[in-house]
Amino acid sequence: MKNKILAILAFISIATSLQASKGAATVGYVRLDYMQSLLPEYKAAEVSYESFLKQVEGPIKDKYEEVRKKLAHLEEEQENISEALKSSKLAEIQQLFNDAKVLERLAVSKQAELFDPVNKKIQQAVEKVAQERECACVLVKNESVVYVSEECDISDLVLETLGAPPAKEEDTKVSSTQEEGAVE
Questions:
Q1: Would you say the C-alpha torsion 36, 42, 47, 50 has a positive or negative sign?
Q2: For residue 125, which of 94, 161, 178, 183 is within the disulfide window of CB 3.0 to 4.6 Å?
Q3: Most confidently predicted of 25-29, 61-65, 82-86
Q4: CA-based nearest residue to 163, from 46, 48, 51, 41
Q5: Are 103 and 59 in contact (CB under 8 A)?
């Protein structure tokens, strides 16, 4: 909580100094989850990633379960086996653990491979719209933002820059209501 307060105070300080040096600098915000939900390439990345996760989650869980079982078994028999056998079993357990970690890193790598290109496009579109609107700062709504006026929302302009249509009016109201509930 203390870090959030310090971050907010730092942001206010930066925004104030930017306004003083630039005149009427504005702050914009984007609803990242809203924009992502409307981009076909983001949806495709989600589908691909979910499919990939289904393939690796089972083996990851299995390896961790096997590590847990082997450790428990080793603990039970540790007084009855030689140090050499104990070292051998520990090495085997360590290898299983390392194999699980490799699969986890593979999942993180796959996530980056699938989502980084679309996130880069979003970032570039945000920068373009921010420059056009002369925004000194663009925030992601609901990430340590205490208050921001809806007039600062540039999400639909970013979507337009990306060639994606904004959501229908009814969808926006539902999305805003859901986001407001998440602010608490």
A1: negative
A2: 161
A3: 61-65
A4: 41
A5: yes
The two three-digit tokens of residue 28, written as one number: 């914009």
Work out the mean pLDDT of the chain and round it to a whole number: 81
The Cα–Cα gap between 18 and 58 comes to 51
Q: What is the pLDDT of residue 179?
A: 46
Contact 45, 113 (CB under 8 A): no
| Secondary structure, 3-state, 82-106 | CHHHHHHHHHHHHHHHHHHHHHHHH
């249509």: which residue's tokens?
165
Number of H helices, E strands in the chain: 6, 2
Report, in this order, helix, strand and coil percent for the chain, each rounded to 5.
80, 5, 15
What contacts 117, CB < 8 A, 6 or more positions away? Answer: 41
Encode burial over 33-42: b for 16+ CB neighbours within 10 A, e otherwise.
Answer: ebbbebbebb
- pLDDT 10s digits, 98-138: 999 999 999 999 999 999 999 999 999 998 998 888 888 88
